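Before we proceed, please read the two lines closing this message. Report back on whether the structure tokens fit the sequence:
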Amino acid sequence: HFSERCTANPNFALRLLQKGGQLPLMTFFVLSGFVIGLRHVHRSESFGSYARSRFMRIYPVYLFSLFAAVAVVMLAQQTAVPANAPAFWRDQVLKIQSDGGIRTFLGNVFMLQGPKWFPNEGCFAPYGGTSPLWSLSFEWWFYMAFWLLKTKLKLPVARNLVYGWAIVSTVGLCFYPCQPFVWSAAFSVWWAGVELAIQYEKEKSLSLAKQLPTALTLGAQFVLLLVGGYVLHRWRHIDSHTVLNVYDWIFCALSVFIAALLFSKSFARPFPKTTKIVRRLGADSYAIYAVHYVLFNVVAILAHSHLIVWLSLATVGTYLLADFMEHHVHPAGVRLIKSFWKSA
């Protein structure tokens, strides 16, 4: 995201860096499924209790970011774009302005936003140009689907349903790119983390033999999207952009999954000198993800030159703000929501 803001015409190295952004995102999906699987897969809990715990983790920081984005949109709307402004800068400001309506805001509040490259069929654009926040929408509905599946079905049945529908959705995506198909294709990535958690909790180790259904599903999605993207690109009957983006996801997810199997024993080894730093950064990582693009958008509006300098300062500011949010804003938000629920 830093590199996207630096130039409208990235060189090969920057394009590779931007493409590599899919890898940490898919890592996050797999890790999220793993953590939720460890905590909740065998726990008996009501939907209200489960949804509240997820709401408390996601929404305080998320709402802070959304309302900060409102301020950024207001700033963008007050910014006159000069006629001779560079096209790259002008397009960024206009994008922030165009995605700042009340309807888009409400769609984001209810987690109905989709990726910025999506044709917006069945979803809203991320509010105020905060494009990374689409993944929180997917994450939220992964949580809800997980509770439904693990409480209403036996785990083997739930696994077969998730993976079977992922294959169907992947095929459907090649013919009709829409939000349900994209979400379902990505849900198999998240569920891969759940499968890893189930085996790890039981055996304290991971093996390909036990994870074969997951590997085969991700592999099948990879092949289907590769073939589908090639066919669509060659004959151009349907736009292949969405298909190729999801192909990138599955390729990265498959890489993360294989790495987890290969290096699972190494992950268990303690590293005392880095543990405190990793724990601190791990706790702050969600807030960093939620707020960084808001600050980058401020730079996009105000900085007409020396972009790299301003973006570097914004990067440092992102960590400081995220650390404050995680350790002060988030606990305060949780206390406020709990007191509201008790009074209600």
